[in-house]
Amino acid sequence: MKRLHALCGVLLATVALVSPLLHAEIPPTVLGSNPSLAPMLKDVMPAVVNISVTSKVEIQNPLLQDPFFRRFFDIPDSLPQEREAQAIGSGVIVDAVKGYVLTNNHVVEQADSIRVRLADDRVLDAKLMGTDPDSDLAVLQVSPDRLKALPIADSDKLQVGDFVIAVGNPFGIGSTVTSGIVSALGRTGLGTKYENFIQTDASINPGNSGGPLVNLKGELVGINSQIVSRTGTSAGIGFAIPSNQVRFVLTQLVEHGAVQRGRIGVGGQDVTPELAKAFKLPAARGAVITQVVPGSPADKAGLKAEDILLEANGKELQDFSQLRNLVGLMHVNDRIELKVLRDGKPRTVTVTIGKETEQAASGTQLHPQLAGAVFVPVDESNAPERGDNEARGILVQRVQPYSPAARLGLRANDIILAVNRQRVNTMADFEKRAGAKNGDLLLLIKRGDNAFFVTVN
To answer: Domains, the chain, ranges and CATH?
Structure first.
């Protein structure tokens, strides 16, 4: 009798596990006499590609950097200090007619040459159409000859628990398929500016970057991008960029070669339990505006510092990054309706999305010693990652290796607070005070929680 009860328990457990599958939206071929994902994958695999990248990296030999050592041993200054490096990754064809291939920015950044290996073993040279480091996406183009593309699904329809498949080229061993579920949605805090990651337990390993995450219909729902692991290999915590964000970036890169995001011109931070208590809020959710850029769309719409942002276009805001992502995926002249609390009273403010009116400035245009750096104003698109209480200053967006700016010690994500002991909050301020005609410069720089001065001669 005990064996009978045990057998019944196993049977009921099996039915409980299988029941969700029977009600899930799964192609009929999966539920046939021999359940398998193979029929669906036959259409997916031809669209997945392996990407190989060749680039040059600096030879890290401190002795060769020492002028005394080079003179003593008569080592010529022209001695090559670079070597060729290769990297691998994955990608997915999303337009068979035009030959567009999506992958991660970190797979192809600083690449000198890019080659794509198709599922039929053809190897094609790839042209880099554009990259977007802020979302870690890039678009390549190959010859549109006998290509197969994946359809792009609506990632907003994904739910936690949906079955997904990750395809890629882990460790360079060749095309590999792993399966899992959507573990979570809307993950942030992983190091890119625009984050709304899909979390999955489908195995993602080095080399999978840029490969597709697909649903059981064989549609693209995400681009595999990152993992969290103590070993560097899959620990069942992988992240993919949602297909709706991918679609937006793809269109922008193809049309403009760069992403033109909307902005409203505010700085802010998450509402913590401490801030909720200070502002007498019932719960620690939403975001508080810390700065409104003068003349910005937010300023024109009437938003003010210390406004508490609760909703955007009818969606509850959990944190400031959610607002940043929403605005970043909107077009110029779109409208966003914000529900805010001001002095404890609710109100609705409608803001017309604007464009980045202050263009990035190249250090080459300013001072010879700043050459190789690109500077942008601090606003809602970049201040939150550093946890600043005030969105102000000039952000060092990127620094070219071995450039004068790099030798000066500037790093990406540094914030320049002042030039020659005068605050700089706008690009106009910075360009006026950091020009070569001003001679020597004294920069006050904030890096993380530290601030220090740098002299520019």
So the answer is: 44-141 (2.40.10.10), 155-256 (2.40.10.10), 266-352 (2.30.42.10), 361-456 (2.30.42.10)
